[in-house]
Specification:
The chain is of the alpha/beta class and 243 residues long. 37% of the residues lie in helices and 28% in strands. It folds into two domains: 122 residues, Periplasmic binding protein-like II (D-Maltodextrin-Binding Protein, domain 2, 3-Layer(aba) Sandwich), CATH 3.40.190; 98 residues, 3-Layer(aba) Sandwich (D-Maltodextrin-Binding Protein, domain 2).
Length: 243
Amino acid sequence: MKNILLILFSIYLLAFPSHAAEHLTILTENLPPLNFVENGTLVGPSVEIVKEIQERTGSVEPIQVYPWARAYKMALDMENVILFGMTYTKDRSELFKWVGPLATKRDILLARRDAPFSITSLEDAKKVERIGTLRDDVRGKLLEKMGFTNLEPVSDEQNNAQKLALGRIDLWAYKKPGFRTVCKLAEVDPDLFVEVAHIKESELKIAFSKKTSDAIVARWQKAFDDMMADGTVQQIKDKWNID
C-alpha cells in the first residue's frame, strides 16, 4: 500500500510540478508610464500585461517595486527572478532570458525651453555641465560608451524632472513615452521641457534570471503570444494610450 501511494504521489508531481519549487520573485521599478506607483498602488500597462500572464500561467506571487540598481542585481544573481520592463540590448541579451516585447521606447535628451544654450546633436550635449540619468540604467551606460563624462545619476527619475525644472541639471536623459507621466508625478509642468536630441530606439521586455528554468520562460512566452493573438495586449495598450 505504501508503495502504491508513493507511485501515485510521484505521478502527481510529474503531472503538476510543485509551485513551491518554482516560486518566482517578480520585480519592477517606478518607471512611468509603463509601471509606476500612484497613490500607493502599482499601475501601468506593463503591470496589467504581467498580471494577465500570471493569471494564465497560475503565478500568484506579488509584484515588488525596487530601485532599479537593486532589482537588476537580484535578476543577475538569483534564481527565478523576473524583472520588467527591461531594455533589451546586445550587451544584456545573454545575461537574461526574455519574453515580450512589452513596448517600444525612444530615448531622448530633454532641456528647459528657456535653456541658455543650443543643442542640435548628441555631440553638443557633451559640452553641458550636467546631464541627469538614472543610476545603472541603460541610457546612462549608453551615453558613457559614447564618451559622455558629464552624467549625474539619481535613484528615481522624478528627481531628474525636479532638478531640470529648477535648473540643477542642464539636460535629462529619458524616454518617450514616459516623461510627461514622470513630470506629473513629480508635480512638474512637462511643457517646461523640450526634446533636443534623439539617443536610441529600443524594446522593453520581461527579463528572467539565467537561473530560471526554460520551462517557466516558455510558459510565460506562450501566455504572452496568446495575449498578442487574442488582442489582449493591444487592448491594454489602447487603454493606457501607449503606442
